[in-house]
Design brief:
Blueprint (H helix, E strand, L loop, with lengths): L10 H37 L51
Length: 98
């Protein structure tokens, strides 16, 4: 019979070699799966011409005046003093990826 590749290798080294190959295989599969997902998102942006719907070349919202904010009520989530001289209103969207 012919001698196998790992017959002369100590068991400890063979175990770590198998573990290393398994981790490497998982990393490669992960890159292939997640690489395809991110490239499909990139293709959508490229096919769209890189523009956002409703966005014009000169309209970036930097020159707009402050808008009136609804008064604070009991259902609002507030941190700090309600009557602070400076307030920060944060709008969030859990569906947005940015």
């Amino acid at each position: 019979m012919s001698k196998q590749f790992l017959d002369g290798t100590p068991p400890k080294i063979a175990f770590f070699l198998g573990l290393l190959l398994g981790v490497a295989a998982c990393v490669i599969v992960g890159f292939l799966l997640f690489g395809q997902a991110s490239s499909s998102t990139t293709k959508e942006v490229v096919n769209n011409g890189g523009t956002v719907a409703g966005d014009t070349a000169g309209n970036h919202g930097g020159d707009s005046a402050p808008a009136d904010v609804a008064p604070v009520n009991d259902q609002d989530h507030i941190r700090g003093d309600v009557d602070a001289p400076i307030t920060l209103v944060e709008y969030s969207d859990y569906e947005c990826s940015f």
